[in-house]
Design a protein that fits this description.
The complex is a heterodimer. Chain A is α+β, with helices and mostly antiparallel strands. Chain A has helices at 30-40, 47-50, 81-96, 117-120, 174-188, 253-274, 295-299, and strands at 2-3, 6-8, 12-26, 53-60, 71-78, 103-106, 113-115, 129-132, 138-144, 147-152, 154-171, 194-195, 207-209, 218-220, 242-250, 276-280, 291-294. Chain A is elongated, with a radius of gyration of 21 Å. By secondary structure, chain B is mainly β. Chain B has a 13-stranded mixed β-sheet. A two-stranded parallel sheet of chain B has the order 2-5. The chains are: A alpha+beta, B mainly beta. At the A-B interface, strand 8 and strand 10 of A face strand 9, strand 10 and helix 4 of B.
Protein backbone atom coordinates (compact mmCIF):
# COMPACT_ATOMS: atom_id res chain seq x y z
CA UNK A 1 0.00 0.00 0.00
CA UNK A 2 1.41 3.35 -1.00
CA UNK A 3 0.18 6.50 0.71
CA UNK A 4 1.48 9.71 -0.83
CA UNK A 5 4.73 8.01 -1.77
CA UNK A 6 5.28 6.21 1.53
CA UNK A 7 5.11 2.43 1.24
CA UNK A 8 3.08 0.90 4.08
CA UNK A 9 3.85 -2.81 4.53
CA UNK A 10 0.93 -5.21 4.63
CA UNK A 11 1.80 -6.34 8.13
CA UNK A 12 0.91 -5.78 11.74
CA UNK A 13 2.52 -5.00 15.06
CA UNK A 14 2.00 -7.76 17.57
CA UNK A 15 1.59 -6.62 21.16
CA UNK A 16 1.18 -8.22 24.55
CA UNK A 17 -0.91 -7.70 27.65
CA UNK A 18 0.96 -6.03 30.48
CA UNK A 19 0.18 -4.69 33.92
CA UNK A 20 0.19 -0.91 33.90
CA UNK A 21 -0.11 1.99 36.27
CA UNK A 22 -0.23 5.75 35.98
CA UNK A 23 0.94 8.22 38.60
CA UNK A 24 0.96 11.99 38.77
CA UNK A 25 4.11 13.62 40.08
CA UNK A 26 4.01 17.27 41.07
CA UNK A 27 6.71 19.66 42.15
CA UNK A 28 7.15 23.25 43.30
CA UNK A 29 8.03 24.18 39.73
CA UNK A 30 7.78 22.49 36.33
CA UNK A 31 11.51 21.91 36.45
CA UNK A 32 11.33 19.83 39.63
CA UNK A 33 8.25 17.91 38.57
CA UNK A 34 10.12 16.98 35.37
CA UNK A 35 13.28 16.10 37.29
CA UNK A 36 11.37 13.60 39.41
CA UNK A 37 9.47 12.22 36.41
CA UNK A 38 12.63 11.87 34.34
CA UNK A 39 14.30 10.05 37.19
CA UNK A 40 11.48 7.56 37.85
CA UNK A 41 11.24 6.75 34.13
CA UNK A 42 15.01 6.32 33.79
CA UNK A 43 16.46 2.92 32.83
CA UNK A 44 12.98 1.69 31.91
CA UNK A 45 13.23 1.20 28.17
CA UNK A 46 12.62 -2.51 27.81
CA UNK A 47 11.18 -5.21 30.01
CA UNK A 48 14.04 -7.44 28.85
CA UNK A 49 16.62 -5.75 31.01
CA UNK A 50 14.93 -3.08 33.09
CA UNK A 51 12.08 -4.87 34.87
CA UNK A 52 9.58 -2.37 33.55
CA UNK A 53 8.89 0.06 30.74
CA UNK A 54 8.09 3.61 31.72
CA UNK A 55 7.73 7.03 30.23
CA UNK A 56 6.17 10.43 30.53
CA UNK A 57 2.61 10.46 29.23
CA UNK A 58 2.22 14.22 29.37
CA UNK A 59 2.85 17.35 31.38
CA UNK A 60 0.00 18.70 33.49
CA UNK A 61 -0.81 22.32 34.18
CA UNK A 62 -1.40 23.65 37.67
CA UNK A 63 -5.16 23.41 37.17
CA UNK A 64 -4.97 19.73 36.34
CA UNK A 65 -3.07 18.44 39.37
CA UNK A 66 -4.58 17.59 42.77
CA UNK A 67 -2.35 20.04 44.65
CA UNK A 68 -2.40 22.80 42.00
CA UNK A 69 1.29 22.61 41.27
CA UNK A 70 3.01 21.79 37.98
CA UNK A 71 2.90 18.07 37.32
CA UNK A 72 3.74 15.20 35.03
CA UNK A 73 1.73 12.05 34.33
CA UNK A 74 3.92 8.98 34.16
CA UNK A 75 3.05 5.46 32.95
CA UNK A 76 4.82 2.34 34.20
CA UNK A 77 4.22 -1.12 32.76
CA UNK A 78 5.52 -4.51 33.70
CA UNK A 79 4.78 -8.16 32.99
CA UNK A 80 2.89 -8.91 36.22
CA UNK A 81 1.16 -6.95 38.99
CA UNK A 82 3.77 -8.21 41.48
CA UNK A 83 6.72 -7.06 39.40
CA UNK A 84 4.99 -3.76 38.70
CA UNK A 85 4.40 -3.23 42.41
CA UNK A 86 8.07 -3.91 43.12
CA UNK A 87 9.25 -1.52 40.43
CA UNK A 88 6.77 1.14 41.48
CA UNK A 89 7.77 1.04 45.14
CA UNK A 90 11.52 1.03 44.39
CA UNK A 91 11.35 3.82 41.86
CA UNK A 92 8.97 5.92 43.95
CA UNK A 93 11.24 5.60 46.95
CA UNK A 94 14.48 6.33 45.08
CA UNK A 95 13.38 8.84 42.45
CA UNK A 96 10.31 10.76 43.65
CA UNK A 97 10.53 10.73 47.44
CA UNK A 98 14.08 12.03 47.03
CA UNK A 99 13.26 14.90 44.65
CA UNK A 100 12.91 18.32 46.32
CA UNK A 101 9.33 19.44 46.86
CA UNK A 102 7.77 16.48 45.08
CA UNK A 103 4.36 14.93 45.71
CA UNK A 104 2.80 11.88 44.10
CA UNK A 105 -0.81 11.01 43.29
CA UNK A 106 -2.80 8.25 41.71
CA UNK A 107 -3.14 8.55 37.94
CA UNK A 108 -5.78 5.84 37.58
CA UNK A 109 -9.00 5.89 39.59
CA UNK A 110 -10.88 2.72 40.50
CA UNK A 111 -9.92 -0.89 39.85
CA UNK A 112 -7.53 -3.07 41.82
CA UNK A 113 -4.97 -1.05 43.74
CA UNK A 114 -1.19 -0.86 43.73
CA UNK A 115 0.55 0.53 46.77
CA UNK A 116 2.21 3.94 46.45
CA UNK A 117 2.39 5.75 49.78
CA UNK A 118 1.35 2.55 51.49
CA UNK A 119 4.61 1.01 50.27
CA UNK A 120 7.00 3.75 51.42
CA UNK A 121 5.26 5.35 54.40
CA UNK A 122 7.58 3.63 56.85
CA UNK A 123 10.33 5.92 55.65
CA UNK A 124 8.66 8.33 58.07
CA UNK A 125 9.91 6.15 60.92
CA UNK A 126 6.73 6.57 62.92
CA UNK A 127 6.25 10.27 62.12
CA UNK A 128 4.24 9.62 58.94
CA UNK A 129 0.72 11.05 59.03
CA UNK A 130 -2.31 9.46 57.41
CA UNK A 131 -5.04 11.65 55.94
CA UNK A 132 -8.21 10.09 54.63
CA UNK A 133 -10.90 12.13 52.91
CA UNK A 134 -14.54 11.09 53.12
CA UNK A 135 -14.64 10.51 49.36
CA UNK A 136 -12.37 7.51 49.94
CA UNK A 137 -9.04 9.06 48.94
CA UNK A 138 -6.19 8.28 51.30
CA UNK A 139 -2.86 10.08 51.57
CA UNK A 140 0.37 9.74 53.50
CA UNK A 141 2.43 12.70 54.66
CA UNK A 142 6.03 11.69 55.28
CA UNK A 143 8.33 14.19 56.98
CA UNK A 144 11.48 14.89 54.96
CA UNK A 145 14.25 17.46 55.22
CA UNK A 146 12.55 20.10 53.05
CA UNK A 147 9.14 19.73 54.69
CA UNK A 148 7.00 16.75 53.88
CA UNK A 149 6.37 14.30 51.05
CA UNK A 150 2.70 13.97 50.21
CA UNK A 151 1.82 10.70 48.54
CA UNK A 152 -1.50 9.08 47.74
CA UNK A 153 -1.76 5.67 49.39
CA UNK A 154 -2.54 3.71 46.23
CA UNK A 155 -2.98 4.00 42.49
CA UNK A 156 -5.06 1.94 40.09
CA UNK A 157 -3.73 -1.20 38.39
CA UNK A 158 -4.60 -1.59 34.72
CA UNK A 159 -4.47 -5.33 34.02
CA UNK A 160 -5.16 -5.02 30.31
CA UNK A 161 -2.42 -2.57 29.45
CA UNK A 162 -0.69 -3.17 26.13
CA UNK A 163 3.04 -3.34 25.46
CA UNK A 164 4.96 -3.78 22.25
CA UNK A 165 3.09 -1.77 19.66
CA UNK A 166 5.73 -0.71 17.14
CA UNK A 167 6.57 0.97 13.88
CA UNK A 168 9.67 0.26 11.76
CA UNK A 169 10.71 3.36 9.86
CA UNK A 170 12.84 2.83 6.79
CA UNK A 171 14.50 5.70 4.95
CA UNK A 172 17.04 6.26 2.25
CA UNK A 173 19.59 7.84 4.54
CA UNK A 174 20.37 8.18 8.20
CA UNK A 175 19.28 11.85 8.18
CA UNK A 176 15.88 11.33 6.56
CA UNK A 177 15.06 8.33 8.75
CA UNK A 178 15.95 10.15 11.96
CA UNK A 179 13.94 13.17 10.81
CA UNK A 180 10.97 10.88 10.13
CA UNK A 181 11.29 9.25 13.57
CA UNK A 182 11.42 12.62 15.29
CA UNK A 183 8.36 13.84 13.43
CA UNK A 184 6.46 10.68 14.33
CA UNK A 185 7.48 10.88 18.00
CA UNK A 186 6.41 14.52 18.24
CA UNK A 187 2.94 13.58 16.99
CA UNK A 188 2.69 10.45 19.14
CA UNK A 189 3.64 12.22 22.37
CA UNK A 190 0.46 14.26 22.12
CA UNK A 191 -1.66 11.12 22.36
CA UNK A 192 -3.02 10.22 25.81
CA UNK A 193 -2.35 7.04 27.81
CA UNK A 194 0.59 5.98 25.63
CA UNK A 195 4.37 6.12 26.04
CA UNK A 196 7.35 5.46 23.85
CA UNK A 197 9.84 4.16 26.42
CA UNK A 198 13.12 4.21 24.48
CA UNK A 199 15.59 7.12 24.48
CA UNK A 200 13.78 10.04 22.91
CA UNK A 201 11.08 7.51 22.00
CA UNK A 202 13.26 5.85 19.34
CA UNK A 203 15.18 2.55 19.29
CA UNK A 204 17.87 1.76 16.77
CA UNK A 205 18.73 -1.69 18.08
CA UNK A 206 15.60 -3.61 17.19
CA UNK A 207 15.67 -7.24 18.21
CA UNK A 208 14.73 -10.70 17.07
CA UNK A 209 14.03 -13.43 19.61
CA UNK A 210 17.08 -15.44 20.73
CA UNK A 211 20.53 -15.57 19.13
CA UNK A 212 23.40 -17.89 18.34
CA UNK A 213 24.91 -17.51 21.79
CA UNK A 214 23.60 -19.49 24.75
CA UNK A 215 21.47 -17.45 27.15
CA UNK A 216 20.72 -14.60 24.77
CA UNK A 217 17.01 -13.79 25.05
CA UNK A 218 17.20 -11.37 22.16
CA UNK A 219 19.76 -10.29 19.62
CA UNK A 220 20.07 -7.83 16.77
CA UNK A 221 17.28 -7.77 14.20
CA UNK A 222 19.63 -8.76 11.40
CA UNK A 223 16.88 -8.81 8.76
CA UNK A 224 16.64 -5.01 9.09
CA UNK A 225 20.37 -4.21 9.47
CA UNK A 226 21.56 -2.41 6.32
CA UNK A 227 25.13 -3.56 6.84
CA UNK A 228 24.06 -7.22 6.82
CA UNK A 229 22.10 -6.96 3.60
CA UNK A 230 23.03 -9.95 1.48
CA UNK A 231 24.72 -11.81 4.34
CA UNK A 232 21.43 -12.70 6.08
CA UNK A 233 17.81 -13.20 5.06
CA UNK A 234 17.31 -9.47 4.69
CA UNK A 235 13.94 -7.77 4.24
CA UNK A 236 15.25 -4.40 3.10
CA UNK A 237 16.30 -3.66 -0.43
CA UNK A 238 19.17 -1.51 -1.62
CA UNK A 239 17.15 1.71 -1.42
CA UNK A 240 16.96 1.51 2.40
CA UNK A 241 19.94 3.04 4.14
CA UNK A 242 18.69 3.17 7.70
CA UNK A 243 15.95 1.63 9.90
CA UNK A 244 14.65 3.01 13.20
CA UNK A 245 11.93 1.62 15.40
CA UNK A 246 9.38 3.23 17.67
CA UNK A 247 7.95 1.05 20.44
CA UNK A 248 4.62 2.03 21.98
CA UNK A 249 3.10 0.97 25.30
CA UNK A 250 -0.31 2.10 26.46
CA UNK A 251 -2.96 1.64 29.09
CA UNK A 252 -5.35 0.24 26.48
CA UNK A 253 -5.44 -1.18 22.97
CA UNK A 254 -7.11 2.01 21.80
CA UNK A 255 -4.35 4.17 23.28
CA UNK A 256 -1.62 2.23 21.44
CA UNK A 257 -3.62 2.29 18.22
CA UNK A 258 -4.17 6.03 18.62
CA UNK A 259 -0.46 6.71 19.06
CA UNK A 260 0.48 4.48 16.11
CA UNK A 261 -2.12 6.19 13.95
CA UNK A 262 -0.74 9.63 14.88
CA UNK A 263 2.80 8.45 14.08
CA UNK A 264 1.80 7.04 10.70
CA UNK A 265 -0.02 10.24 9.76
CA UNK A 266 3.04 12.30 10.64
CA UNK A 267 5.22 10.02 8.49
CA UNK A 268 2.88 10.32 5.53
CA UNK A 269 2.69 14.08 5.99
CA UNK A 270 6.49 14.35 5.97
CA UNK A 271 6.66 12.29 2.77
CA UNK A 272 9.34 9.98 1.32
CA UNK A 273 11.78 12.64 0.16
CA UNK A 274 12.34 14.22 3.56
CA UNK A 275 11.36 11.23 5.70
CA UNK A 276 10.68 7.50 5.54
CA UNK A 277 10.09 5.74 2.24
CA UNK A 278 8.65 2.65 3.86
CA UNK A 279 6.97 1.77 7.16
CA UNK A 280 6.73 -1.73 8.59
CA UNK A 281 6.01 -3.35 11.93
CA UNK A 282 7.43 -6.18 13.96
CA UNK A 283 5.57 -9.34 14.82
CA UNK A 284 6.12 -12.98 15.68
CA UNK A 285 3.69 -14.41 13.16
CA UNK A 286 0.66 -13.47 15.19
CA UNK A 287 0.69 -16.54 17.39
CA UNK A 288 2.09 -15.00 20.57
CA UNK A 289 0.50 -11.62 21.28
CA UNK A 290 -3.22 -11.11 21.70
CA UNK A 291 -3.15 -7.62 20.17
CA UNK A 292 -2.55 -7.01 16.49
CA UNK A 293 -2.27 -3.53 15.02
CA UNK A 294 -2.57 -3.75 11.22
CA UNK A 295 -0.82 -0.79 9.60
CA UNK A 296 -3.28 -0.63 6.70
CA UNK A 297 -6.21 -0.25 9.07
CA UNK A 298 -4.40 2.49 10.97
CA UNK A 299 -3.66 4.61 7.90
CA UNK A 300 -7.08 4.05 6.33
CA UNK B 1 -41.46 12.81 45.66
CA UNK B 2 -41.96 15.11 48.65
CA UNK B 3 -40.17 14.36 51.91
CA UNK B 4 -41.94 12.55 54.74
CA UNK B 5 -42.67 15.47 57.07
CA UNK B 6 -43.16 15.75 60.82
CA UNK B 7 -44.61 19.09 61.96
CA UNK B 8 -44.17 19.79 65.68
CA UNK B 9 -47.53 20.55 67.32
CA UNK B 10 -46.02 22.50 70.23
CA UNK B 11 -43.20 22.61 72.76
CA UNK B 12 -42.86 19.12 74.31
CA UNK B 13 -43.40 18.93 78.08
CA UNK B 14 -40.69 16.30 78.43
CA UNK B 15 -37.48 15.52 76.54
CA UNK B 16 -38.22 13.38 73.51
CA UNK B 17 -36.09 10.52 72.24
CA UNK B 18 -36.38 11.01 68.46
CA UNK B 19 -34.03 8.12 67.65
CA UNK B 20 -36.79 6.07 65.95
CA UNK B 21 -37.35 8.77 63.35
CA UNK B 22 -34.66 7.71 60.88
CA UNK B 23 -35.31 6.25 57.41
CA UNK B 24 -34.03 2.74 58.14
CA UNK B 25 -36.22 2.38 61.24
CA UNK B 26 -39.30 3.77 59.49
CA UNK B 27 -38.88 1.68 56.34
CA UNK B 28 -41.86 -0.60 55.77
CA UNK B 29 -44.08 1.11 58.39
CA UNK B 30 -47.42 2.68 57.50
CA UNK B 31 -48.15 6.27 58.45
CA UNK B 32 -50.46 4.98 61.22
CA UNK B 33 -47.71 2.74 62.59
CA UNK B 34 -45.26 5.63 62.53
CA UNK B 35 -47.78 7.77 64.42
CA UNK B 36 -47.89 5.13 67.16
CA UNK B 37 -44.12 5.07 67.77
CA UNK B 38 -43.31 6.11 71.35
CA UNK B 39 -40.91 9.01 71.86
CA UNK B 40 -41.30 9.51 75.63
CA UNK B 41 -38.35 9.65 77.99
CA UNK B 42 -40.45 9.78 81.18
CA UNK B 43 -43.15 7.40 82.34
CA UNK B 44 -45.77 9.53 80.62
CA UNK B 45 -46.19 7.87 77.23
CA UNK B 46 -46.16 10.13 74.22
CA UNK B 47 -46.30 9.01 70.61
CA UNK B 48 -45.04 10.49 67.36
CA UNK B 49 -48.59 11.25 66.26
CA UNK B 50 -49.31 13.18 69.48
CA UNK B 51 -46.19 15.32 69.10
CA UNK B 52 -46.13 15.79 65.33
CA UNK B 53 -48.60 16.27 62.54
CA UNK B 54 -47.48 13.83 59.88
CA UNK B 55 -47.44 14.46 56.15
CA UNK B 56 -46.66 11.23 54.27
CA UNK B 57 -43.98 11.25 51.61
CA UNK B 58 -40.67 9.68 50.70
CA UNK B 59 -39.43 7.78 53.74
CA UNK B 60 -35.80 8.08 52.66
CA UNK B 61 -36.05 11.84 52.96
CA UNK B 62 -37.40 13.05 56.30
CA UNK B 63 -38.21 16.60 57.31
CA UNK B 64 -38.92 17.95 60.79
CA UNK B 65 -40.61 21.34 60.94
CA UNK B 66 -40.59 23.32 64.15
CA UNK B 67 -37.61 22.51 66.30
CA UNK B 68 -37.08 22.38 70.02
CA UNK B 69 -34.04 21.91 72.19
CA UNK B 70 -35.99 19.02 73.76
CA UNK B 71 -35.78 16.92 70.58
CA UNK B 72 -32.91 14.56 71.45
CA UNK B 73 -31.11 11.90 69.40
CA UNK B 74 -32.35 13.12 66.05
CA UNK B 75 -30.78 11.09 63.25
CA UNK B 76 -29.30 8.54 65.64
CA UNK B 77 -27.71 5.71 63.68
CA UNK B 78 -28.57 7.30 60.34
CA UNK B 79 -26.99 5.13 57.64
CA UNK B 80 -28.56 6.41 54.42
CA UNK B 81 -31.06 8.96 53.19
CA UNK B 82 -31.49 12.42 54.59
CA UNK B 83 -33.06 14.24 57.52
CA UNK B 84 -33.66 17.96 57.43
CA UNK B 85 -34.64 19.82 60.61
CA UNK B 86 -36.17 23.28 60.36
CA UNK B 87 -35.33 24.47 63.87
CA UNK B 88 -33.30 23.67 66.96
CA UNK B 89 -32.50 20.20 68.24
CA UNK B 90 -31.46 18.79 71.60
CA UNK B 91 -28.58 16.57 72.59
CA UNK B 92 -26.75 13.97 70.52
CA UNK B 93 -28.09 14.81 67.07
CA UNK B 94 -26.54 12.50 64.52
CA UNK B 95 -25.22 10.21 67.23
CA UNK B 96 -23.51 7.12 65.71
CA UNK B 97 -24.39 8.18 62.15
CA UNK B 98 -22.67 6.04 59.53
CA UNK B 99 -23.99 7.61 56.33
CA UNK B 100 -26.60 9.89 54.81
CA UNK B 101 -27.11 13.58 55.50
CA UNK B 102 -28.47 15.32 58.57
CA UNK B 103 -29.10 19.04 58.18
CA UNK B 104 -30.14 21.18 61.12
CA UNK B 105 -31.25 24.72 60.36
CA UNK B 106 -31.03 25.87 63.99
CA UNK B 107 -28.83 25.16 66.99
CA UNK B 108 -27.81 21.75 68.26
CA UNK B 109 -27.28 20.68 71.86
CA UNK B 110 -24.28 18.88 73.31
CA UNK B 111 -22.75 15.75 71.78
CA UNK B 112 -23.95 16.46 68.23
CA UNK B 113 -22.27 13.98 65.88
CA UNK B 114 -21.03 11.89 68.79
CA UNK B 115 -19.63 8.56 67.61
CA UNK B 116 -20.25 9.36 63.95
CA UNK B 117 -18.43 7.08 61.52
CA UNK B 118 -19.68 8.42 58.19
CA UNK B 119 -22.11 10.72 56.44
CA UNK B 120 -22.52 14.44 56.67
CA UNK B 121 -23.87 16.51 59.55
CA UNK B 122 -24.50 20.21 59.01
CA UNK B 123 -25.59 22.56 61.77
CA UNK B 124 -26.51 26.02 60.51
CA UNK B 125 -26.64 27.55 63.98
CA UNK B 126 -24.43 26.86 66.97
CA UNK B 127 -23.42 23.50 68.43
CA UNK B 128 -23.23 22.77 72.13
CA UNK B 129 -20.32 21.37 74.10
CA UNK B 130 -18.64 18.09 73.16
CA UNK B 131 -19.31 18.34 69.43
CA UNK B 132 -18.59 14.91 67.91
CA UNK B 133 -17.16 13.75 71.23
CA UNK B 134 -17.55 10.32 72.79
CA UNK B 135 -20.06 9.68 75.55
CA UNK B 136 -18.52 9.11 78.99
CA UNK B 137 -16.80 5.73 79.01
CA UNK B 138 -16.35 5.57 75.26
CA UNK B 139 -12.87 5.73 73.75
CA UNK B 140 -13.39 7.46 70.40
CA UNK B 141 -15.36 10.47 69.24
CA UNK B 142 -15.82 11.14 65.55
CA UNK B 143 -14.62 8.12 63.54
CA UNK B 144 -15.37 9.35 60.03
CA UNK B 145 -17.58 11.59 57.95
CA UNK B 146 -17.91 15.33 57.85
CA UNK B 147 -19.35 17.74 60.43
CA UNK B 148 -19.93 21.37 59.47
CA UNK B 149 -21.05 23.98 62.02
CA UNK B 150 -21.88 27.34 60.49
CA UNK B 151 -21.99 29.04 63.87
CA UNK B 152 -19.99 28.47 67.03
CA UNK B 153 -19.28 25.26 68.91
CA UNK B 154 -19.04 24.93 72.67
CA UNK B 155 -16.21 23.51 74.72
CA UNK B 156 -14.17 20.44 73.76
CA UNK B 157 -15.28 20.29 70.15
CA UNK B 158 -13.77 17.22 68.48
CA UNK B 159 -12.79 15.63 71.77
CA UNK B 160 -11.09 12.28 71.12
CA UNK B 161 -11.90 12.35 67.41
CA UNK B 162 -10.26 9.50 65.54
CA UNK B 163 -10.87 10.25 61.86
CA UNK B 164 -12.99 12.50 59.65
CA UNK B 165 -13.26 16.25 59.27
CA UNK B 166 -14.95 18.88 61.45
CA UNK B 167 -15.38 22.44 60.20
CA UNK B 168 -16.51 25.16 62.64
CA UNK B 169 -17.01 28.52 60.98
CA UNK B 170 -17.40 30.96 63.87
CA UNK B 171 -15.21 29.79 66.68
CA UNK B 172 -15.22 27.40 69.61
CA UNK B 173 -15.12 27.36 73.37
CA UNK B 174 -12.19 26.07 75.40
CA UNK B 175 -10.16 22.93 74.65
CA UNK B 176 -11.05 22.55 70.98
CA UNK B 177 -9.63 19.27 69.73
CA UNK B 178 -8.90 18.02 73.22
CA UNK B 179 -7.44 14.52 73.37
CA UNK B 180 -7.62 14.15 69.58
CA UNK B 181 -6.50 10.73 68.39
CA UNK B 182 -6.39 11.70 64.69
CA UNK B 183 -8.51 13.45 62.07
CA UNK B 184 -8.84 17.07 61.04
CA UNK B 185 -10.52 19.90 62.92
CA UNK B 186 -10.77 23.29 61.21
CA UNK B 187 -11.83 26.36 63.20
CA UNK B 188 -12.50 29.79 61.80
CA UNK B 189 -13.16 32.54 64.32
CA UNK B 190 -11.72 32.57 67.80
CA UNK B 191 -10.94 29.59 69.96
CA UNK B 192 -11.06 29.49 73.72
CA UNK B 193 -8.25 28.39 75.99
CA UNK B 194 -5.79 25.63 75.19
CA UNK B 195 -6.83 24.33 71.80
CA UNK B 196 -5.41 20.87 71.10
CA UNK B 197 -5.17 20.12 74.81
CA UNK B 198 -3.60 16.66 75.20
CA UNK B 199 -3.99 15.86 71.50
CA UNK B 200 -2.05 12.73 70.50
CA UNK B 201 -2.21 12.94 66.70
CA UNK B 202 -4.42 14.76 64.22
CA UNK B 203 -4.48 18.20 62.65
CA UNK B 204 -6.07 21.29 64.13
CA UNK B 205 -6.35 24.33 61.84
CA UNK B 206 -6.90 27.71 63.48
CA UNK B 207 -7.68 30.85 61.55
CA UNK B 208 -6.78 33.19 64.38
CA UNK B 209 -3.69 33.58 66.51
CA UNK B 210 -4.05 31.85 69.84
CA UNK B 211 -2.04 31.20 72.95
CA UNK B 212 -1.17 27.52 72.78
CA UNK B 213 -0.06 25.38 75.67
CA UNK B 214 3.73 25.52 76.17
CA UNK B 215 3.71 21.83 75.33
CA UNK B 216 3.31 22.73 71.63
CA UNK B 217 6.56 23.35 69.74
CA UNK B 218 6.87 25.73 66.78
CA UNK B 219 8.05 23.99 63.59
CA UNK B 220 7.97 26.91 61.17
CA UNK B 221 6.05 27.57 57.99
CA UNK B 222 6.19 25.24 54.96
CA UNK B 223 4.26 24.96 51.73
CA UNK B 224 2.08 22.01 52.77
CA UNK B 225 0.69 20.41 49.61
CA UNK B 226 -2.02 18.51 51.45
CA UNK B 227 -3.82 21.66 52.60
CA UNK B 228 -4.66 22.42 48.95
CA UNK B 229 -6.23 19.00 48.61
CA UNK B 230 -8.39 19.68 51.63
CA UNK B 231 -9.29 23.13 50.26
CA UNK B 232 -10.58 21.56 47.06
CA UNK B 233 -12.35 18.81 48.94
CA UNK B 234 -14.15 21.26 51.23
CA UNK B 235 -14.91 23.91 48.61
CA UNK B 236 -18.51 22.78 48.19
CA UNK B 237 -19.07 22.33 51.94
CA UNK B 238 -17.49 25.46 53.39
CA UNK B 239 -16.07 28.22 51.29
CA UNK B 240 -14.57 29.84 54.39
CA UNK B 241 -12.67 26.65 55.23
CA UNK B 242 -11.47 26.30 51.63
CA UNK B 243 -10.22 29.89 51.69
CA UNK B 244 -8.40 29.30 54.95
CA UNK B 245 -6.75 26.12 53.67
CA UNK B 246 -5.47 27.84 50.55
CA UNK B 247 -3.40 30.13 52.77
CA UNK B 248 -0.13 29.49 54.54
CA UNK B 249 0.36 28.28 58.08
CA UNK B 250 2.72 28.17 61.00
CA UNK B 251 2.90 24.61 62.27
CA UNK B 252 3.14 23.65 65.94
CA UNK B 253 3.75 20.06 67.01
CA UNK B 254 2.21 18.63 70.12
CA UNK B 255 0.83 18.01 72.57
CA UNK B 256 4.22 17.00 73.95
CA UNK B 257 2.54 16.32 77.29
CA UNK B 258 1.25 13.16 75.63
CA UNK B 259 2.27 11.42 72.37
CA UNK B 260 3.22 14.66 70.58
CA UNK B 261 2.39 13.55 67.04
CA UNK B 262 -0.42 16.04 66.60
CA UNK B 263 -0.14 19.37 64.84
CA UNK B 264 -1.75 22.77 65.15
CA UNK B 265 -1.71 24.94 62.03
CA UNK B 266 -2.17 28.63 62.71
CA UNK B 267 -2.97 30.78 59.69
CA UNK B 268 -0.05 33.01 58.82
CA UNK B 269 -2.32 35.48 57.00
CA UNK B 270 -6.04 35.55 57.56
Amino acid sequence: MNVRGVEIDDTFAEAFAMSGAAIIITGPTRRWALNAATSITGFATSIIGCGCEAGIDRELGMRETPDHRPGVRVLILSMSPDELQKQLANRLGQCVLTAPGSACFSGVQGGPRLRLGDAIRYFGDGWQISKRLDDGRHFWRVPVMDGEFLCEATTGLVTQAVGGGNLLLMGRSYETTLRAAEAAIDAMRAMPDAIMPFPGGIVRSGTKIGGKYKGMLASTNDAYCPTLRGAVDSVIDASIGCVLEIVIDGLSEAAVAGAMRAGLRALVRLGPKRGAVRVGAGNYGGGLGPFKFHLKELVA
Amino acid sequence: MKPFTFILRGEPDQRLDCAPLVPERLAGLSTAEIARLPLNTTRKKITTGEMFRIRAGDLTSLRLEGGSERLDNIGEGLAAGSIEVEGHVGKAAGRNMSGGRLTIAGDAGPFAGSGMSGGRLEISGNAGDFLAAPFPGEIQGLRGGLVVVRGQAGERAGDRMRRGIIVIEKGTGDYAGSRMIAGTLIVMGSTGRLPGYLMRRGSLFLAEQVSLSPTFLPCGAFPFAFTRLFADHLKAESRAAARLLRGSFERYAGDMAVLGKGEVFVAARW
